[in-house]
Amino acid sequence: MISPFFKKKDPVDKQSQPGMVQKVQLSEEQGEEVEDQTAGETLAGVVTTGKAPLDKKSLDLIFSVEQIIQARQHAETNINELQDRLTHSSSHVERLNRDMKNLNKVIEEREKNVRELEHKLIEKNLKVDQVLEDYRELQTTLTAEIEELKSAIDLEHQKYVNLIQKHNEAHAEKLKKMNDLEEKLGRIETENAHLRQKYDTIRQEKAYLSGMISDFTNRMTVPFGNGSTLAGRNDENGDT
């Protein structure tokens, strides 16, 4: 059978009625001390005031009773220590309960902050997903535009190459025509020089022949006296 002192008590009862428990414990301890003192005095009186010496059984009984009393005193001492420890533990439990309440408040605040952060993180993730989706669409559009620009650049490059080729061909043809014209011009200038030389020769011959004809005509028509004068005039006309 468990002693009433070892029964587990509710912390709420301990917190609500600490004074009553202490009063009951003090009254029980005082009653037990009075009983122990009365029993000890009775045994001492029996041992000391007896007229005849006690037999061995009586002495053994007295010794057993004394041991029981001592054991009870020792048990009461242990119970008092346990009561002190229980009181200390109760105060420690109360302090732990207060700390636990404070920690619960802190945990609730932290959980609230965590929920807020999770909500913000979800919003951020949604924004990031939207930005990534926009980036993918933009990248797809830019890739298509880049491919179109590459095709246009290749086409323009091909046109440029063809134009360069045509330009080079036209330039070569122009140089060839210029060379042909220069050669032709050289031949024409040479022919002109020869013709001018022939013209000058023919003109001189014509002038000479004209002078001879004029001189012959004057000689045939003018009298002999005037022949020298006419001959001189004809000579002057021929020189001019």
Ordered list of secondary-structure elements with their pairings:
Blueprint: H1 11-16, H2 18-49, H3 56-221, H4 227-239
Helix pairs in contact: 2-3, 3-4
Biased composition (Acidic residues): 29-38
Biased composition (Polar residues): 14-28
Coiled coil: 65-205
How would you describe the overall organization of this protein?
The protein has helices at 11-16, 18-49, 56-221, 227-239. With 240 residues, the chain is mainly alpha-helical. The longest helix has 166 residues, at 56-221.
How many E strands?
A: 0
What is the typical, i.e. mean, pLDDT? 77
End-to-end distance, in Å?
A: 180 Å
Number of helices: 4
Order of helix and strand elements from N to C terminus:
HHHH
Largest sheet: none
Q: SS-based structural class?
A: mainly alpha
Helix content: over 70%
Percentage of β-strand residues = under 5%
What's the quick description here?
Keywords: Coiled coil. With 240 residues, the protein is an all-alpha fold.
Properties at a glance:
mainly alpha; 90% helix; 0% strand; rod-shaped; disordered N terminus; coiled coil
